[in-house]
Amino acid sequence: MAPVKSIAIIGAGASGAAAANAFAAEKYFDVIKVFERREEPGGTWIFDAVPPELDLVPGALPYQLDPPLRIPPALPTTVRANTQERFHKTPVYDGLTTNVPEIAMSLSDRRFPYGPFVPHWVPKNYIREHFSVHGHDKLLNLNTTVERVTKIAGDRWHLVLRRHDALLDRDEWWEEDFDAVVFGNGHYSVPYVPFVPGLAEYLLKFPGRVSHSKSYRGPKQFTNQRVLVIGNSTSGYDVTDQLRRSPLVQHPIIQSRHSRSLWEGDEPPDGLTWKPVISEYTADGTILFEDGSSLAHSEIDAIVYCTGYRPSYPFWDAKKNGRDLYDYEANRFAGTFQHTFVPDYPTLGVIGIPRSLTFRSFEYQAIALARVWSGRAKLPSLEEQRQWEVDRVKERNLSHRKFHDVEWDTGETEEYLTFLYRLAGLPLLDGTGLTPPVLDASTRWAIENIRKHPIFRPTRSSAKGGQGEVANEGDWVVVSPWKDSLSFI
Ligand SMILES: Cc1cc2nc3c(=O)[nH]c(=O)nc-3n(C[C@H](O)[C@H](O)[C@H](O)COP(=O)(O)OP(=O)(O)OC[C@H]3O[C@@H](n4cnc5c(N)ncnc54)[C@H](O)[C@@H]3O)c2cc1C
Ligand SMILES: NC(=O)c1ccc[n+]([C@@H]2O[C@H](COP(=O)([O-])OP(=O)(O)OC[C@H]3O[C@@H](n4cnc5c(N)ncnc54)[C@H](OP(=O)(O)O)[C@@H]3O)[C@@H](O)[C@H]2O)c1
């Protein structure tokens, strides 16, 4: 691999902030540019008061919903502004607070101003300030979308960039080449709505009735309405809870659950009715659930799908780069080592993919990448890196766990961060480079003991439809999948 001297970082969220800091501190790279399509840093934590109006397509994946833009034939150029949906708005809603204690969530060089849980503007301001405090504002290229990433000779990268000029409502397009690229582009932009028989027809029959939590901003949107919420992970839990507590919305709120969440007891709280997964939307608008129960179209005014997101890489030039990047069937980034390095493309790094501690674990990834590309740390052989993925797929299949979920309770987080910590190693004797953070006793204590919502651990007698033992069938029990105590991240 030729020396890496110029780096493009895609995204100015927490991943981009951690990356800019780690690469700059290495004092080795000549060019570091952070490309951010929004008007400011902050990523997921920017609040868009006007929610996106999204066309929902059941079962559709990002390569169908978020295709690449048509690139003008000759660059540089300035053309009419793009009008294609790019999913740039965020899902942040009124009343959203963080759910990870700040001592464990913040980057290690500065804490959030207070904690443990803070309103959404605190992490937004924190990320913005992180760039400024370190003097990295000058690395930022805002309103600039990376539209194409193509591998060129010498493991280098050719980027096609588009800057939106809001004043003239025009798009400037140009090209730049870099030695290495870091993907810190997040993965909560393109909403996912599962395929359900009849849902596509229902969407046409009742326009505006079905939405995704990405467009949820608060109960006011559902004034006097009877609402069905699909999903009970973090978004589903929070949306349901806000609606349930609001006098504006008609009660009870109905929630369709696929599995029991960490925060649920045996019975729903007041103002909430639980239903299982929807099996079908019939032609007359009736909603059928897996237990045979149903809701007539006249019993519901709004449906909110809180069924998560899928990562999108519309800029990845799969044809020229030789392969796709994301395996949507397996729901994982294809061909990574430690969720960070990509053996097939040694000058490509990915930050922010694993479901682990967020900002803090991005920092370990960023420092390890910076150290490897500055030549101050060495990865294992390509063969060993590839074997890591093979072994992990095997292990995850056996344990029925998701590839990028890095659990806390099993010690996985410890192992993962220890690997990155050791790989990065110490800064140089003269202080050049960042020191990877420690996971000290106070941080561990906060992770294990400070909760935004209490966790319900069912007992044999109380458990039904949830984690742990779920049904006593005489001399044997049905056990539903165990959920890690940080699985809500
Ligand atoms: C509703 C919600 C609540 C959350 N709450 C918590 C919480 O309480 N605690 C917690 O730890 N985590 C939480 N998370 C997870 C959150 O995503 C992470 O905390 C973290 O902000 C992710 O940072 P990131 O930089 O990896 O991605 P993002 O914050 O998504 O940043 C990616 C950036 O890349 C930019 N970008 C994307 N594509 C391009 C492109 N082609 N060109 C240029 N720029 C591009 C985007 O505009 C964005 O600014 C929450 C997520 C959501 C959706
Ligand atoms: N700070 C906060 O309080 C806060 C608030 C909101 C979101 N967030 C963050 O936002 C990110 C995304 O969270 P998310 O909740 O939007 O997505 P998510 O965690 O991916 O959850 C998707 C949910 O959809 C459910 N689901 C999928 N198909 C279903 C179906 N057909 N019927 C019923 N349920 C179905 C899943 O159930 P199974 O799990 O059983 O498959 C899961 O509960 C996370 O990082 C989260 O921490 C944080």
Protein described:
GO terms for molecular function: flavin adenine dinucleotide binding; N,N-dimethylaniline monooxygenase activity; NADP binding. It comes from Ophiostoma piceae (strain UAMH 11346) (Sap stain fungus). Belongs to the FMO family. This is Dimethylaniline monooxygenase. Keywords: FAD, Flavoprotein, Monooxygenase, NADP, Oxidoreductase. This protein folds into 3 domains: 6-190 and 310-424, FAD/NAD(P)-binding domain, CATH 3.50.50; 193-307, 3-Layer(bba) Sandwich (FAD/NAD(P)-binding domain); 457-489, no CATH class. Helix 1 (14-25) runs parallel beside helix 4 (121-133), helix 1 runs parallel beside helix 8 (359-373) and helix 8 runs parallel beside helix 10 (412-424). The chain has 489 residues and is of the alpha/beta class. 23% of the residues lie in helices and 20% in strands. It has a 5-stranded parallel beta sheet with strand order 4-2-1-8-21, covered by helices on one side. The longest helix is centred in the last third of the chain and has 18 residues, at 382-399. It has 11 helices and 23 strands. Residues 459-470 have low confidence and may be disordered. The radius of gyration is 23 Å and the shape is globular. It binds flavin-adenine dinucleotide and NADP nicotinamide-adenine-dinucleotide phosphate (NAP). Residues 10-16, 35-38, 43-45, 88, 91-92, 96, 98-100, 105, 145-146, 184-186, 188, 315, 352, 358, 489 line the site of flavin-adenine dinucleotide. The site of NADP nicotinamide-adenine-dinucleotide phosphate (NAP) has 23 residues, from helix 6.
